[in-house]
Structure formats: C-alpha cells, structure tokens
Amino acid sequence: MSDKPTSVFSIHLLLLFGLFSSSLSAEDTATNLGDALSPLEIEKYAITVFPDGTNLPAGQGSARQGKTLYQNQCANCHGLKGIEGPAARLAGSDGWFSFSDPLRILRIDKYPVLLISVGGLWPHATTIFDYIRRAMPHYAPKSLNNNEVYALTAYILHINDLIDQELVLNKSSILKISMPGKDRSVLAWPETNIK
Amino acid sequence: MKTKLIKEVAAGGLLERRSFLLSGFALSSAYSLNALSASDAGSGRIDTDFPQWAKVPGRNDIEYGQPSEHERHIKRIQAENAPETSMFSIWHTPIQNQRGIITPNGLHFSVNHNGIPEINPQHHTLRIHGMVDKPLKFDVESLLRYPMVSTINFLECAGNTASNAVSLTALDQSCQELYGQISGAEWSGIPLKYLFKEAGIKPKAKWVIAEGADGGSHSRSIPMEKLMDDAILALYQNGERLRPSQGYPMRLLLPGWEGNANIKWLSRLEVADTPAYTKDESGLYSDILDSGEIQRFSFPMGVKSVITHPSGKQTLPDKKGFYEVSGLAWSGHGKIKQVDVSADGGNTWAKAHLDGPVLTKSLTRFTIPWQWSGTATILLSRATDEHGSVQPTRNQWREKYASYSFNHYNGIQAWRINSAGRVENTYV
C-alpha cells in the first residue's frame, strides 16, 4: 500500500499552516498493539482445511473403520442411515422428490433443514474432514483423533456411494474425491449485479 | 375549528399523511374540559382523582434496569423446527411489539448452531495469520484501546421468513414467527482494516476465513474487499458490551450481509487467496436455483419490508376506524429509497412516510395513516432501495429458486384482514 506520497504531502500542508503536531491519522493507526504470533502457535490453531488440501494433517482411515465409530458416536443424531435426523442429513441428493425414503415428507415437515444433504450439496470432501474435526460429535467437539476423522469422512462418502468401503482416505487420496455438488456450483461473489 | 379535507391517496382508506396531520382529526374530541365546581373550595383535596401510585413515594432504582412488569410478556420465542440436537437454537425477536429501528439487546434475534460458549474475556485471543507480513495476536484489553466507530445496521438470518418461501399454503403465523430473525442495533468497534493494515496483507490475499471460539468453531470465508470496506470487529452493541448470545467478547459485523457470516465469539482470521468452503457455505447457507444449480456466497440480504402494525395473528381492536400502518424496510445493498403500501390487495399503492433517520444497510421505519372501512382487505408493503432494486412478489422470487430453497427470501408480504379484524398471513 502506498501511503507515503499522501503522508508527505499532508505533512507539508500542516507545516505550511503552522499546525504540525503529528502526521498520523486514524487511518494510519499508530496503535500497534498486536503481539507477534509464532509459527508454532499458528500450527496449533490453523485447523481450516482448504479444498486444495492446505492444513490437512497426517493420518488415514477407511469407511469400514468408520462404520463402528459412526454407529457409536454419530447415529444417535444423524440416524443409522444418515438420513433420519434430527441432525443434518448426510446422505442422498437434495430436494423434495428425488430421494427414496418413504417417510421423507414427514421428516422434512418436522426438520426443514433435512432437505439438503452433505452428499448432495457439498462441493469438496475436504469440508467433511474439516467440520468433523472442529465440531463433531456435537456433545464433544474436537475429541476425535485425525485417523478417526479420516475414517468417518470415508464412511460419509461411502454411504453416498462415492467411494468403496476399503478405500483408505488420507491427505492425498481425499483430494481425488469428486463430489456431485461441485459441478452444480455457481458463485454469487464477486457480485455481478445488485438485484 | 378549521376543517381540512383529508385526502385519500390510495383505495382501501390509505390517507395522505400531511393533510391527516393538519386536520385535527385525532384531536377533535379530546379537548372537552370539565367545569370546576366553585363551591367547597377550602376543604377540597386533590387526592381523590389521582391513581394510587401518584399518592405514595416510588421505589428506588436498581443496578441494571428491567422492563415494566406489564411488558414482561414481550419476549423472544424459540423456533420449533430447528433440528433438536441440543444446541442448534433459533430465537425470534418480537418486531410486532417494537417501534423505531433499534432492537433492545435482550430481544435481539439469535441463531446458534453449537450453543453459546461461556468465554472468559481475559483468556480470549484474536489471531490473524495466513497471507500476512506479520502474524499477530490481540487480547481483549488491547483491542479496547483501538480507535472505534459506531454504525447502525440491521442483522438478518439468511433463513428469515423461510416458511413463506417453501410452504405451499400460507401458514397462520405472527410477524415474530415469520420475520423474527431480523433486528437492528448500533454496533461499535474497530474497523477491521486497521487490524489488517497492522498485520500487512499480501497482494494475493482475496479471502479471510473467520472463525469463532464456540464449540463448533463456526467459520465462514469472507471476501477481503468487504473486510477492507465497512466491516468492524464489534465489541459494543447499543452502548454496552456484546451479550454472550451476540458473540461476547467480540464478533464480526458485516453490514447488510447474512447473519451467519457475522462470526460471533471471533477468535481467528486466516488470510487466504481462496475460500475454504466451510460447512455452512457448502450446504445450509447456499441457495438452490430453479435450474438445479447451487448458488454459493450470496452474502447481501436483498431489499425487503414487512408491515409490523398490524400483522399476523393480531385482531384490530375496533371493527373500523383509524389505524397507523407501520413497518420496517431494509436492504443489504444500501439505503431504502421508497416504501409503497397497498390497502386493497395490490390494486392501488401509496407512498409511505419514511421515519428518519434513513441509514444505509439499516432498518428503516415507514408509516402511513389508514382509515379502515371494516370490510375484508389485504395489506401489502413493497420496498425499493437506492439502487432501484424493488422487492419482488412471492411468485417472482420463487421463479428463480428451487421449490425447496429457503434462504434469502424477500417476497412481498401480504396480510389478509377479515371483516372481524383478524390479521392473517396470506399469499397474493
């Protein structure tokens, strides 16, 4: 950012009118009150996993390994099949009519957000890893180790028929998963109009 | 008394505000003075005609004031259709009981995906890292020393009024149930550009992943352009420090943008060249278009309005006569330019009065006098913002989205009034 010419110019102006006391405006913020953040501390807290794999940790797991974990830690809220709720639907396409669950309309009536599913909408498998690791299970977030998070991610991909139950998911194989929500994505930002 | 003609400005009894105010209409019977009796002058006492509370000393005040006990029924209500997983809760503000454009802090709407964390401010840290020259951390005490600005803005959940978007029949719901995920407040805090300037943003940086310190570490990807424009790190709401349910000790405030992106309990800003596609921007807070495409990052809330007085589930106290129609309008793109009201189901419209101040990305109060004839009718309001964007009809809105898409609904609201004065949500 090129503040220099402006600052120099305003100093001249101030001197010219004999008002010189300080060349700093609120925009320049003399308040440098932040402390340096060390690389070690950044590593501890940088848990956001990007679609290109940035911040993915070491570890691995398969859907077969994830199944028992899912039944013990997740099924209570998401249902054994990942569609029953009450928590967000994990499997299947989105919409009113495109899903084969016979009780679906009743469930949607009770829990409208079950209309959309992780498998149907989410464009990147990395987000599944990211969210399980930071927020799941709801009653004990951040309690799973990285192998368990890979295994549960694999299990959710498996119940969406996206991978075989033996496929070992790790920081490189997760990047090869193709999610159906990706090709359907359109981006509203940057704004093209203001309607 | 001089009588002026009260002009009707649209069918159904909508009146011209100026001629109405000048007419003395509301005051015509108010000034009949009681003649005082001249006898008994010396023995007279004034206490007989005064209420009990005017004849005893009042109580002392208390440390933190509370509403009158007669107003204690004015409360938020919890939406029932959130998934019943312990801590996903949605609380609606009673806008049908409020006037002006500011929501009291205890009544501000609140949506929490992972509950409200109990944060000790002495152990809360804000970290800025990623594509910056100097990764930095700040404690709350230091941040309170920064130069601050104040801004009056609305905050609206992307899912506000979702049931009118997706329900095939108009549900008989109150304004609070349908529109309660909107509030207005004065927010004070630090322009985020100050902090980013201190950290030094690398030229390729385009996005910032903002994260809260709640159990779910809620996160959203925010364009750098917005953060360098009007975004603030809010520490105060309506003059006092943030309430826990609004992000204590600090939150992101993105004027005009969907509530979910205004990260509460803000603790981390990771500067990047791409969005992260976090949980909510991957699923729940995307919009499914009629084409089947999934629209992502549709941040600003569109131009919208609702008549709050009268509104759903209320009954007009008299079968006919004068009412002031009043409501709220807002746009996530700027100022409200005009609000039109119809009292005959949309056949004729009149321009409502905008009660100042009219601020950018803020609630704007509108009013119009109305003489109700006592027959069934439909009240509508339609807002236009300074960019000329006009609030769409429900059908126009639904043409753009899949039948089950519910975010960013801003269709024109219709309140049906039957001949008994009951007000009901309806579609036109």
How would you sum up this structure, described in words?
The complex is a heterodimer of chains A (195) and B (428). Chain A is mostly helical and 195 residues long. Chain A has a domain at 63-182: Cytochrome c-like domain (Cytochrome Bc1 Complex, Chain D, domain 2), CATH 1.10.760. Helix content of chain A is 38%, strand content 3%. Chain A contains nine helices and two strands. Chain A has helices at 4-16, 39-45, 63-73, 75-78, 104-110, 118-121, 125-135, 146-159, 180-183, and strands spanning 35-36, 185-187. The longest helix of chain A has 14 residues, at 146-159. Residues 1-24 of chain A have low confidence and may be disordered. With 428 residues, chain B is mostly beta strands. Chain B folds into two domains: 105-292, Sulfite Oxidase, Chain A, domain 2 (Alpha-Beta Complex), CATH 3.90.420; 304-426, Immunoglobulin-like (Sandwich), CATH 2.60.40. Chain B is built from eight helices and 26 strands. Chain B has helices at 17-22, 140-143, 162-166, 175-179, 192-199, 224-227, 279-282, 394-400, and strands at 8-10, 14-15, 77-78, 89-92, 110-112, 125-130, 136-139, 149-156, 182-191, 207-212, 219-223, 232-237, 240-241, 251-253, 266-272, 287-288, 294-296, 304-309, 321-330, 336-342, 350-351, 353-355, 364-372, 377-385, 414-417, 423-426. In chain B, the strands form seven sheets. Chain B has a five-stranded mixed β-sheet. In chain B, strands 8, 9, 12, 13 and 14 form a five-stranded antiparallel β-sheet that branches. Chain B has a five-stranded antiparallel β-sheet with strand order 21-20-24-25-26, with no helix packed on it. The chains are: A mainly alpha (195), B mainly beta (428). Chains A and B meet through strand 1, helix 2, helix 7 and strand 2 of A and strand 6, strand 7, helix 5, strand 15 and strand 16 of B. Strand 2 of chain A pairs parallel with strand 17 of chain B.
User: If helices are DSSP runs of H or I spanning 4 or more residues, what is the number of helices of chain A?
Assistant: 9
Strand content of chain A: under 5%
The name of the CATH superfamily of the largest domain in chain B reads Oxidoreductase, molybdopterin-binding domain
CATH architecture field of the largest domain in chain B: Alpha-Beta Complex
- Proportion in helices of chain B: 10-25%
Class based on secondary structure composition and strand pairing of chain B: mainly beta
Helical segment count of chain B = 8
* CATH topology type of the largest domain in chain B: Sulfite Oxidase, Chain A, domain 2
Q: Quick one: CATH class of the largest domain in chain B?
A: Alpha Beta
- The outline of chain B comes out as globular
Largest interface (CB < 8 Å): A-B, 62 and 71 residues
Main β-sheet of chain B, in a few words?
5 strands, mixed
Number of strands of chain A: 2
Radius of gyration of chain B: 25 Å
Number of domains of chain B: 2
Biggest sheet descriptor of chain A: none
Report how far the terminal alpha carbons of chain B are from each other: 43 Å
Mean pLDDT over all positions of chain A: 82
Query: Order of strands side by side in the largest beta sheet of chain B?
Result: 7-6-15-10-11
